[in-house]
Amino acid sequence: MTMDQKHIKYPRTFHCPWSPGRTNDDKVHTQSDINRMFKGREVVVTEKMDGENSSLYSDGCHARSLDSRAHVSQAWIRAFAAKIGQDIPEGWRVCGENLYARHALGYDSLPSYFLGFGIYNEVNRCMPWDTTVEWAALLGVDLVPVLYRGPWNQELIQALGNPGVPSAYGPEREGYVVRLADGFDFWDFDDSVAKYVRSGHVDPNSGHWAQKAVVPNGLKA
Fold first, then answer.
1. 67 falls within a domain
2. In this predicted structure, what is the pLDDT of residue 14?
3. Residue 53 belongs to a domain with what CATH number?
């Protein structure tokens, strides 16, 4: 986790131990980690969207890496960040997915090209989910789809990754993300969030999406 004076890189999310879509360099929670993090706690499970991780501030936005190169697919989100930036409190950031360009999966009925999944305040604390929903509505930010909210139930949550389950906005679901419904400090991110990615999500022979011609995802009519 790195930060500069003002902008903060979004951390890598550890995989659940049953996530088949992890690669050799991915970080993975153990089952003991998962029990310690979530057992007896309220969690929110959201659909993992196949886009570019992005953070929006009162003065602009950036992709996950602070030094990442600009890409033509970021034009829309820069304009969106400029539009809502005056309403984002100083020192806060809205984190989510830039879904303008199609990556490995395509979407045909998105409500917006940016879907948020977390809001951090001026003391670098991720807001509780209820507060996130309230602030997203105030800012005009659509959120990622919620698949489950309630007490930790590993059997139920694992079933959300069953093969063939469609996305809320397209034919295929990449996976899901589990987070504590309560707020948590940025430094506790690794102990508060986990993800599941389905097997075969990315074709290793297809090349990186950023090196291809941009194909915009579809918006809801």
1. yes
2. 98
3. 3.30.470.30
- Residues paired with 43 in a beta bridge: 150, 180
Distances (CA, A) of 18 to 30, 33, 121: 9, 13, 32
Residue with tokens 């993800």: 195
pLDDT of residue 1: 35
Does residue 7 belong to any structural domain of this protein?
A: no
Confidence at 207, pLDDT banded by 50, 70, 90: low
Q: Which is nearest to 121 in space by CA: 84, 89, 92?
A: 92
What is the number of structural domains in the chain? 1
**Strand runs (DSSP E) across the chain, as ranges?**
42-48, 52-57, 60-63, 93-98, 114-120, 125-126, 142-143, 146-151, 175-180, 184-185, 193-197
Closest Cα partner for 107 from 219, 193, 3? 219
Average pLDDT value for the chain: 91
Residue 80 counted as domain residue: yes
Beta bridge partners of 176: 47, 196
Structural domain containing residue 110: 31-202
Identify the residue whose tokens are 């970021």. 74
208: in domain:
no
Residue 155: phi and psi, rounded to 5, are -60, -45
> Could you tell me if 218 and 107 are in contact, meaning their C-beta atoms sit under 8 angstroms apart?
yes
3-state secondary structure of 158: helix
DSSP 8-state secondary structure symbol assigned to residue 87? G
